[in-house]
Amino acid sequence: MNTIINSLQNIVHTLKLNLYFTLILLGILWAIHIVNYIMGYRLSYLGIHPRKLAGIPGIVLSPLLHGNFEHLLLNSIPLFVLVDLLLAQGKLHFYTISIEITIISGVAIWLLGRRAIHIGASSLIMGYFGYLLAIAWHHPTTMTVVLAVLGIFYLGSLMLTNLLSFKKGVSAEGHIFGFLAGILVAYVF
Description:
Layout: H1 2-38, H2 58-61, H3 69-87, H4 91-112, H5 122-138, H6 142-163, H7 172-188
Helix pairs in contact: 1-3, 3-5, 3-6, 4-5, 4-7, 5-6, 5-7
């Protein structure tokens, strides 16, 4: 019992330490969006254009770009929670899975996505969510299970609703491929 309590205390302490880093990451996204807004959303053209050479840079850049302030706000809330949870396993771990999820989901969108400009951090968010669930399933430790439960508790219904959202202007491909990329990264990592 003491081991579980100590693990939970360590997780809470780590989450508090990483809060500043999480806020900086969100601040960068908001700064990019403000610049994009001032430029008349011209930066949005740097998103993923499926099967076009001009869309290749979007594989990496698309999570940094958002369609409007509402889009960014709706992505900021789950990002805040998930980034902080993933940072509990270390910054190098966080960077590694972020890069892998971004590239895997971006390439899948580029190869298989609908004709559109795909932008937004949704694929990364769904990747983080899939990663947390898969890692808790395959490598159940106190930390991985607690992090997955926290992710489900705070974001579960939102993530599951977004996973199959086929509304106009929403990249369902980003949600699905991001989620699958997160699971794949959990298996490989």
